[in-house]
Amino acid sequence: MALTTESDLPSARLKQIIDVLDADPLLPDRLIRLLSWASEYYHHPIGEVIESALPLPLRRGAPAGPRLPEVYRLTRQGLELNPTALDRAPLQRQVVTMLRAVAPGGEGAAAAHLRRISPAWRGAANALIRKGLVSKGQQSCRRPGPADGLFPIVLNPTQASAVSNILSSLGNFQTSLLQGITGSGKTEVYLAAIEAVVARGRQALVLVPEIGLTPQLVERFRQRLNVNITVMHSGLSDSERHRAWWAALTGSVQVVLGTRSAAFAPLRDPGLFIIDEEHDTSYKQQDGFRYHARDLILYRAKLENVPVVLGSATPAFESLVNVDRGRYRRIELPSRPGAADLPSAHLLDLRRLPTTDGLTGPLIEAIRKRIVRKEQSLIFLNRRGFAPVLYCTACSWIAQCPRCDAKLTTHKQSGSLQCHHCGHRAPAPTMCPVCQKLSLINLGEGTQRIEETLSALFPDAAVLRIDRDVTRRKGHLEARLNCIREGGADILVGTQLLTKGHDFPNVTLVGVVNADQGLYSMDFRAPEHLFQQIIQVAGRAGRADKPGEVLVQTWNPHHPYFELLRDHDYSWFAHLALAERRAAHFPPYHYLALLRAESTRARVAIEFLNLARRQAGVVLRKNKPDQVHVLDPVPAPMERRAGRYRAQLLVSAAHRTPLHRFLAAWLKRIDKLPQTKKVRWSIDVDPVDMY
Question: Rounded distance, CA 325 to CA 338, Å?
């Protein structure tokens, strides 16, 4: 971390250096400073913070420079060779033919490609190397743009003005909130700004909330920018992440595109940071080192003295308040380019409309019209599985998870009951395990049930479901998204995976099946997240030259939030919700920290937090007690999860400085409690999930 000539510890306690692993520092100085700040701000051990910024091979002592995969390329002599000259060596001819098709002298073909020819491909390749027809080398970290030419970046006047505003901040720290309605062309603004940054010899870092967005964005970036791009996300193998990390560090790529963990990418010469869908809760790490990638990037940009662009159609309330306070600059994209307009939105009253497995008649008829017009429909329900409740009509038994305070979800295709909190699975019973009667029914709807119902209603239509159950394996989500864009599906059914940033030009109808989820949640942030989610999914409709329509099924059509949703009025919704937050002393007007504890035994977690509460009283008596408020411990909203009993204690303050001063002193006292050995406990600074 640093060098010094003296230590506060006695020399007998200092360990000797065994070896110097690297000739140069692994992490740039400013990145070290960022990680040190993050350790202090989130009150997390510095060792674990540093580990989060290093690829796994480096944590295990591997050299900084990764071992790149071997690739085979045709030499100039090989490119000029007529393959018929190898007719007497058919395996060699096949190798040459494949190299011409896959990589004619450029990046090269890896062993995985050549292995498809024959198990004996390596002998043929070595023979071609001896003849001077093929060369063997290492794969480059560089990822060039398309060889067939680039599509130009075309901006309308509003987009051009936005780019001009962003570029005026190059070389200085400035946070810009790019607030544009869904489909307003925020990505084009990103591309033009990145192009200008790269032209100055600097690098750009772009964060997206979900892995599923990276293939789409990478393809768009490669079509528009003549730059080297690498991606960083949890879906990569350890060696792939190591190579991407090295490419960023050495400057061999100009653009790094990734999810939350890419906030730690060791850029050699950063010039611009972009956070797309900046409101998304996926940027918050929910276990271990509980950092928020957006907030880390803001501090990192300040250290690097470079601008940050936060992009969203539905900005986080924290960002809106920072605009009001003059900390951020707002750049607006108020309309969609060309002839595209926002979709018309209508509320369907579930109190008066009968449903077929959760689908109302007007929604079914709207889907039918789209099928006739060969347009696509998107049905959104943020609940996977077939049904959330298995119920006995004879004795009122309900299938409960044995390890959580939660009901088991029916997954009809696998014939199982699953807990979506701890992963518990059990075969779905055919009769009630209590009264032994054949009286079990599935209550409620999940994406599997909606898919099955739509397939029965429209047997000639192609129904495609996208949720975590069908996209777990690598490449499955990308394949299904490509199927949608290529017109291989008439009706899309999905969870929040479909709401974030995807561009489906032929989708003209969005149906929201259960819009009331979260409306009356115990979490004060639930209405914000609900409104953002529905606005985002509604924005998938009518993004090209075809008008779009959004149908929202709700039990509360007269709720003021839904009235605003119908008008796409996020700004007024935020105004009303922020007034409630201010009155309740909730973020972004107050700052929170959540002390969590859990144990395999009931009451142990609560007892531990009661002891911690007493230690808080000791700390507060030594400081100004009116600056920090410590609430009493309570069981977590879901008290038992994965066989562990959970409890939490909330700390609130009007200002960050006294909160962190208190936390530093308090956590030292907690750490000395002998009861820490009986529980798992953690501190979550700026929590976004109160569960």
Answer: 34
Name the residue among 589, 691, 574, 688 with its Cα closest to residue 283: 688
β-pair partners for 203: 270
Q: Report the distance separating Cα 223 and Cα 187, nearest Å.
A: 13
* 385-429 residue pLDDT tens: 999 999 999 999 999 999 999 999 999 989 999 999 999 999 999
* Between 163 and 152, the higher pLDDT residue: 163
The residue assigned the tokens 């606005």 is: 535
Nearest to 688 by CA among 595, 593, 579, 598: 593
In 45-89, which ranges are continuous DSSP H helix? 46-52, 56-59, 76-80
The pTM is what? 0.87
Contact 348, 554 (CB under 8 A): yes
Span 591-685: which CATH code? Answer: 3.30.70.360
Write the CB contacts of 251 (distance below 8 Å, at least 6 apart in sequence). Answer: 203, 267, 268, 269
> Given 3.40.50.300, 3.40.920.10, 3.90.1310.10, 1.10.150.20, which CATH number is that of 344-387+444-570?
3.40.50.300
| CATH architecture of structural domain 19-59 | 3-Layer(aba) Sandwich (3.40)
Does 139 have pLDDT greater than 70?
Answer: no
Q: What is the pLDDT of residues 181-213, one digit of tens each?
A: 888 889 999 999 999 999 999 999 999 998 766
Task: Evaluate whether 441 touches 398 at the Cβ level (below 8 Å).
Answer: no
Cα dist. 92→86, 100, 101, 122 in Å?
7, 12, 14, 10
Please report, as a single letter, which amino acid is at residue 621.
R
Beta bridge partners of 652: 592, 629
Q: Which residue has the tokens 């008290």?
A: 639
363 and 348 Cβ atoms separated by less than 8 Å: yes
Locate tokens 């199982």: which residue?
416
For residue 690, give every residue at least 6 positions away whose Cβ sits within 8 Å of its Cβ, in sequence order, or none: 522, 523, 524, 525, 594, 637, 648
Whether omega before 588 lies within 30 degrees of 0, making that bond cis, reads yes
The Cα 441–Cα 611 span in angstroms is 46
How far apart, in Å, are the Cα atoms of 658 and each of 113, 524, 566, 588, 599? Answer: 59, 23, 42, 16, 30
Q: What is the CATH code for 157-333?
A: 3.40.50.300
When comparing pLDDT for 497 and 657, which is higher?
657
H-helix or E-strand spanning residue 271: strand 270-276
> pLDDT tier at 339 (50, 70, 90 boundaries)?
low
In the prediction, which pLDDT does 154 show? 85
Q: Which of 54-63, 182-191, 643-652 has the highest mean pLDDT?
A: 643-652
Confidence class of residue 434 from pLDDT cuts 50, 70 and 90? very high
Instruction: Give the model's pLDDT for residue 522.
Output: 80
The residue among 383, 343, 363 whose CA lies nearest residue 496 is 383
Q: Are strands 507-512 and 376-380 parallel, antiparallel or unpaired?
A: parallel
Contact predicate 331/163, CB 8 Å: no
